[in-house]
Design a protein that fits this description.
With 480 residues, the chain is mainly beta. Helices cover 13% and strands 35% of the residues. The protein contains four helices and 32 strands. It has helices at 3-9, 380-384, 424-428, 435-479, and strands at 20-23, 30-31, 45-47, 51-56, 62-68, 73-74, 82-85, 89-94, 101-106, 110-115, 130-133, 139-144, 151-156, 161-165, 170-175, 183-188, 195-199, 204-208, 213-218, 229-232, 238-243, 249-254, 264-267, 275-280, 285-290, 295-301, 308-315, 322-325, 337-344, 348-355, 371-372, 393-394. Strands 1, 2, 6, 28, 29 and 30 form a six-stranded mixed β-sheet that branches. Strands 3-4-5-7 form a four-stranded antiparallel β-sheet, with no helix packed on it. The longest helix is centred in the C-terminal third of the chain and has 45 residues, at 435-479. It is globular, with a radius of gyration of 24 Å. One of its GO terms (molecular function) is actin filament binding.
């Protein structure tokens, strides 16, 4: 008997039994977007209470769109993009502590961190706030620390995980000898003291990044050869999706203190799309979105058997190319909305709203416990020194009002600053004391010139890209 049937027969008391999904009307979608066709299993979309960001097709480099949430309807071909990467963008992630800061990882082996203007882009953005260079192969994963300001994790096809202090542009932790094969995904735990990873070698690892130790691992968490995913839950358990030896899709729940056997293991179906898990720690609901599927299945995790309880499935006609997931503070609490997804089609982005049906118009405090807010609990230096802190929680009782974000400032540490300033050799040879200053002024002027030239070349590329897409449109019209 399929596991779903056994679950359906037992009527379990849960306030989430009747959660239902609904796509918004056409005029509330984002239309005419050329969603990226790059073969990579990331979600291609990142959302926060101000903006939706979508990785798009771009000739001659990598680009993504950043649209204010209210900018629905048809998106003009000439709409400005974030286009500083020289290779396709593979992953994007909004900073949880600043709704105007987004990180991107690319095939060009770099991570870039961008500051988006408060009201969105009016011109294409080619200059990131900082470029983080340290990977030797393409960077497919970027993930901000959940509770610490300016700490960013990246993972690349060089099988290395690097943790950066974005405020200084430095790579402070490099885990380059823990994975022998490609890293499929990385997830922070609730307070950011541990990470868990799923890898092509079929292992799930729990890692303490500051001690640079593997705390727990499970070989063959799923025996199939297709990609796995592993995420931390709020209670410290690990949830995984993967494939059986017979290519059936599976989901499993693990306790890192004893990974011999899973707490629960369920087989789902035989589709071949990777299951991307999206987790809400406030309601303990996991939403599974298969790449190429046209449905979202959702489950409630509890501490009673069978631990992973099937709730329902949202079905539609069109397959999804990617998916964005809104943080809790971006939801409409007056409508009992408990999740909002941004489903990517081939040419559009469609919001899908998950609601708990309630008759009352009052604030439903059982649906909205205090949730992680935008304030960081720690500064980067404190975390790197070994401190941990839980997320700073906020109440949603009166809705979430976005505050003013402070600009991301990067102060690069200058190795020259720490060198002794006295140079006795110079004093011995009677060189005028101003010469070094003159030389450095000339160097700075040259550097400025080069940077200006690079910027103008990048701008030209962006403009040409827009021109090419216009010409492609004209060609398509003539061909039609």
């Amino acid at each position: 008997m399929p596991w779903k049937d056994t679950m359906r027969r037992v009527v379990r008391q849960s306030k989430f039994r009747h959660v239902f999904g609904q796509a918004v009307k056409n005029d509330q979608c984002y239309d005419d977007i050329r969603v990226s066709r790059v073969t990579w299993d990331s979600s291609f979309c990142a959302v926060n209470p101000r903006f939706v960001a979508i990785i798009i097709e771009a000739s001659g480099g990598g680009a993504f769109l950043v649209l204010p949430l209210h900018k629905t309807g048809r998106i003009d071909k000439s709409y400005p993009t974030v286009c500083g990467h020289t290779g396709p963008v593979l992953d994007i992630d909004w900073c949880p502590h600043n709704d105007q800061v987004i990180a991107s990882g690319s095939e060009d082996c770099t991570v870039m961190v961008w500051q988006i203007p408060e009201n969105g882009l009016t011109l294409s953005l080619t200059e990131p706030v900082v470029i983080l260079e340290g990977h030797s192969k393409r960077v497919g994963i970027v993930a901000w620390h959940p509770t610490t300001r300016n700490v960013l994790l990246s993972a690349g096809c060089d099988n290395a995980i690097i943790i950066w202090n974005v405020g200084t542009g430095e790579a402070l932790i490099n885990l380059d000898d823990m994975h022998s094969d490609m890293i499929y995904n990385v997830s922070w735990n609730r307070n950011g003291s541990l990470i868990c990873t799923a890898s092509k070698d079929k292992k799930v690892r729990v890692i303490d990044p500051r001690k640079q130790e593997i705390v727990a691992e499970k070989e063959k968490a799923h025996e199939g050869a297709r990609p796995m995913r592993a995420i931390f839950l709020a209670d410290g358990n690990v949830f995984t999706t993967g494939f059986s030896r017979m290519s059936e899709r599976q989901l499993a729940l693990w306790n890192p203190k004893n990974m011999q056997e899973p707490i629960a293991l369920h087989e789902m179906d035989t589709s071949n799309g990777v299951l991307l898990p999206f987790y809400d720690p406030d309601t303990s609901i996991i939403y599974l979105c298969g790449k190429g599927d046209s449905s979202i299945r959702y489950f409630e995790i509890t501490d009673e058997s069978p631990y992973v309880h099937y709730l329902n499935t949202f079905s539609s006609k069109e397959p999804q190319r990617g998916m964005g997931y809104m943080p809790k503070r971006g939801l409409d609490v007056n409508k009992c909305e408990i999740a909002r997804f941004f489903k990517l089609h081939e040419r559009k982005c469609e919001p899908i709203i998950m609601t708990v049906p309630r008759k009352s118009d009052l604030f439903q405090d059982d649906l909205y416990p205090d949730t992680a807010g935008p304030e960081a609990a720690l500064e980067a230096e404190e975390w790197f020194e070994g401190r941990n802190a839980e997320p700073v929680l906020i109440s949603l009782k009166h809705g979430y009002i976005p505050g003013k974000n402070r600009d991301l400032k990067v102060v690069k540490k200058n190795i020259l600053d720490s060198k002794p300033t006295a140079n006795k050799k110079c004093d011995l040879i009677n060189v005028p004391k101003k010469t070094p200053d003159m030389a450095s002024v000339q160097n700075e002027a040259k550097l400025d010139e080069i940077l200006k030239e690079i910027k103008s070349i990048k701008d030209t590329i962006c403009n040409q890209d827009e021109r090419i897409s216009k010409l492609e449109q004209q060609m398509a019209k003539i061909a039609a």
